[in-house]
Amino acid sequence: MPTTAPRGVGHLRGDEPFPVAARRSLADAQLRRNLGHATSTIRAKSAAVIDEVPDWQELREAGSAIKADTMARLPELLQQLETAVVAAGGTVHWAVDAVEANRIVTDLVTATGTDRVMKVKSMATQEIGLNEALEAAGIEPVETDLAELIVQLGRDKPSHILVPAIHRNRAEIREIFLREMPGVDPSLTDEPAILAAAARRHLRRTFLSTRVAISGANFAVAETGALAVVESEGNGRMCLTLPDTLITVMGIEKVIPTWADLEVFLQLLPRASTGERMNPYTSMWTGVTPGDGPQDFHLVLLDNGRSAVLADEVGRQALHCIRCSACLNVCPVYERTGGHAYGSVYPGPIGAVLSPQLTGVEDNASLPYASSLCGACFDACPVKIDIPSILVHLRAEHVTAYRSEHRLPSAEAVTMAAAAYTMDHLPMYEAAQRGSRLARFAGRRGRGLPPPLSGWTVGRDLPQPPPQTFREWWTQR
Ligand code: SF4
Predict the structure, then answer these.
(1) Of 73, 103, 238, 377, which is most buried by a Cβ count within 10 Å?
(2) Of the ranges 344-348, 386-390, 420-424, which one carries the lowest mean pLDDT score?
(3) Is 299 helix (H, G, I), strand (E, B) or coil?
(4) CB within 6 Å of ligand 1 — which residues?
(5) Ligand 1 centroid – CA 242 distance (Å)
């Protein structure tokens, strides 16, 4: 059985279970206002541009089919990618987990003799805790994506896949800049253009004086060895073209078979994520070209639990994700709790299925329950990942693991078995319905049921049962 992501390194596990962290987020009115405003704005933009595409459903089918085909022959495609990257003058490194990936990247940077690197947005490097590993080796990582920079300067954690500083408003960002950005104009206002200009001035020094960059990759084409990064600001393009050495850290699931497949994803991704017809910057590079761009290119292929996800026939769909964040923007749970409550660098619905699989479900046991199973994420996903089915699958896995570890069934298993038995026996079912009226008093909002059912109501409001059941109403007629 393939191994899961190791403990003690990286950002896949939170310090506390989701319900505890979520309760704190829910009490933060400013956070909820910031999130509600940002997600509703992105949702509306995205819906409008998706409506313009007559074959959107066919595109989703195509994206889903390409990903399913990729996962079915992942080892073969990765070897093809390695051959193509090496032929184009690059070097490929295979990292089984976060520890190995951090060591490979740190050694590569140290070998260049530099003590500072610039980074373009990469979730894989956040997943493995690369910044911490670089800092421990005396290397300063500078995030160049504006939102990532805000998070880094604020000594904060990202809370959204696409908009890592979504939980911050303009006034908070101004305060961070004034406090943390060396040489910033003290009369800085919170106008977006003024804030962006301050960040641009701050980053320009880094772009022009840093010789090593570390990037992620949205896609890697197996047949040609080409890699692609899509972004909105142009900072990524600077990172990918200005330095002497470029190191790309990429999860192994980002490979796609052919150049033609890119056409599908480059239509799906911007409309589903930022609500744009086309993302402003799409940078592609293939190995090295003498006299043009970085002259030393390294690709680190990261597993870190992905082989374990691939081995699960239901759960492997999570590897189809193209990190558009559409599922976060439509999720009623995410909209109220924000990303930090999920504890992992991957928040929202996709995080609730990906993180527990990468770490092993016992290390993120509360995440598969962090959903109302409303299905909005499934409808929004541009590659049709059936997130609700994976959530149910992982809940079952957790119940089974709990039983074998504790030699006792979990509270969920006992409650569901009792409910199934009751529904199978009519007199018992009717008695239970009569008894449920007591819950009108015991389970008023803010008050839960008595033990052992209190385990169910501790995280849920109990709905008021109707004064009359359907059976009673029917009998009277
Ligand atoms: S699961 Fe689907 S909707 Fe969510 S981030 Fe991934 S691709 Fe986007």
Answers:
(1) 377
(2) 420-424
(3) strand
(4) 161, 321-327, 350, 380-383, 385
(5) 31
